[in-house]
C-alpha cells in the first residue's frame, strides 16, 4: 500500500503538500485542497467520504473540502492554484483542453474515473411538457453558474432545437433554490447531474410530483456514444424504483473524474490512486444507486483526459 511513498522528496504543492521521505513517517503530508460541489449534493457527499478516507490512511495529510457550484468552477480553481484536487464531469474536463469555455487550455491530469452520474431533466408532473423540445416558453433552471450541469443543459437545449434565453427563459439557480422555485411554480423544469435517488428530487417527487424527460435521443448531437471518442456521455436508463415514475426513462449518463494539476507530486497521486482502488466501496454516497465506476477495470477509463504519471505507476503496480 505504501510502496513508492518514501521516495525522493516531491515538489511542494501550493507551498504545503509534499511527499515525506522519512521511513519512520511514510506517506504524503501537508494540506490537500479538494473542490467538490454544492452543499448536500452528490459531489460534496463524495468529497467528504474521500477526504475522510485520505486522512484516515495518511494522518499527516490534512484535507480542506471546498463546496462550489461544480465542474466549471472546480477547473477554474485548479487553474488559479486555489485547489489541488477536484471532481469534474468528463465532458467539462474535455472542454478545458481548449473551447469557448476555456479559450486558454487548462492542463489537467486524472487520478481516475470515479463514478457515473445521471442527467436528470425534470418537470412538474402536471406540466404538459413531455420532451425537451416542448420547453419553448417555459422557464428552466439549468443549474448554478459554474456547474457542469449548466453547461450541458445549454447544449441539451440547443440539441433539441431551442435557443437558451430566447426560446426558453433560463435561470441559473443553486439546486435547493431551483427546487423551491419548482415547488412554487415559478420554474417549470430543472436539470441536475447527480446520483439517484437525489434527495432534493425525491422530496419534489413526493409533492408536487415529477416527470423525467428522455434525453438519450439527443446524444448524437452532444458528441456522446457514436460521437466524440472519450466524451464520457452515454445512454443509461434511470433505475427502477429510484423515483415513483422514472424507471426506465432513457437519459444520459456522464462519467466523473477526480482530477488535479500536472504538478501534483507523484507520490501524492500514487497514494490517492491506491486509496481509490482499496476503498472503493466506502466512497459511494448513500444517495446513489446504479452504475458505479469505482472498480479495477473502469478507474483508468478517463477518456480524453490523461492520467497523472503517478496514477499510472500506481495502477501498473496494482494490476500489472
UniProtKB/TrEMBL annotation:
InterPro entries: TRAP_TAXI (IPR011852). This is TAXI family TRAP transporter solute-binding subunit. Transmembrane segments: none annotated. It comes from the Bacteria. Gene3D superfamilies: Periplasmic binding protein-like II.
Amino acid at each position: 500500500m505504501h510502496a513508492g511513498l518514501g521516495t525522493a522528496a516531491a515538489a511542494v504543492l501550493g507551498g504545503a503538500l509534499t511527499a515525506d521521505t522519512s521511513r519512520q513517517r511514510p506517506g504524503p503530508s501537508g494540506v490537500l485542497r479538494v473542490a467538490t460541489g454544492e452543499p448536500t449534493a452528490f459531489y460534496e457527499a463524495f468529497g467528504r467520504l474521500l477526504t475522510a478516507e485520505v486522512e484516515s490512511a495518511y494522518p499527516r495529510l490534512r484535507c480542506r473540502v471546498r463546496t462550489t457550484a461544480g465542474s466549471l468552477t472546480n477547473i477554474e480553481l485548479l487553474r488559479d492554484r486555489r485547489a489541488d484536487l477536484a471532481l469534474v464531469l468528463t465532458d467539462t474536463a474535455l472542454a478545458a483542453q481548449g473551447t469557448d469555455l476555456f479559450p486558454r487550455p487548462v492542463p489537467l491530469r486524472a487520478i481516475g474515473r470515479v463514478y457515473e452520474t445521471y442527467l436528470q431533466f425534470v418537470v412538474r408532473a402536471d406540466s404538459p411538457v413531455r420532451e425537451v423540445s416542448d420547453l419553448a416558453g417555459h422557464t428552466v433552471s439549468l443549474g448554478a453558474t459554474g456547474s457542469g450541469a449548466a453547461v450541458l443543459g445549454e447544449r441539451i437545449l440547443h440539441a433539441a432545437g431551442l435557443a437558451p434565453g430566447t426560446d426558453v427563459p433560463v435561470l441559473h439557480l443553486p439546486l435547493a433554490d431551483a427546487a423551491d422555485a419548482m415547488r412554487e411554480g415559478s420554474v417549470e423544469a430543472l436539470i441536475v447531474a447527480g446520483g439517484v435517488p437525489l434527495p432534493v428530487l425525491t422530496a419534489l417527487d413526493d409533492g408536487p410530483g415529477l416527470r423525467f424527460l428522455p434525453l438519450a435521443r439527443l446524444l448524437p448531437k452532444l458528441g456522446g456514444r457514436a460521437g466524440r471518442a472519450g466524451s464520457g456521455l452515454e445512454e443509461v436508463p434511470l433505475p427502477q424504483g429510484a423515483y415513483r415514475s422514472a424507471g426506465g426513462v432513457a437519459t444520459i449518463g456522464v462519467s466523473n473524474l477526480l482530477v488535479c494539476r500536472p504538478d501534483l507530486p507523484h507520490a501524492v497521486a500514487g497514494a490517492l490512486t491506491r486509496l481509490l482502488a482499496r476503498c472503493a466501496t466506502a466512497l459511494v454516497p448513500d444517495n446513489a444507486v446504479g452504475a458505479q465506476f469505482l472498480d479495477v477495470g473502469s478507474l483508468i477509463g478517463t477518456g480524453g483526459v490523461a492520467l497523472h504519471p503517478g496514477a499510472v505507476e500506481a495502477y501498473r503496480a496494482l494490476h500489472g
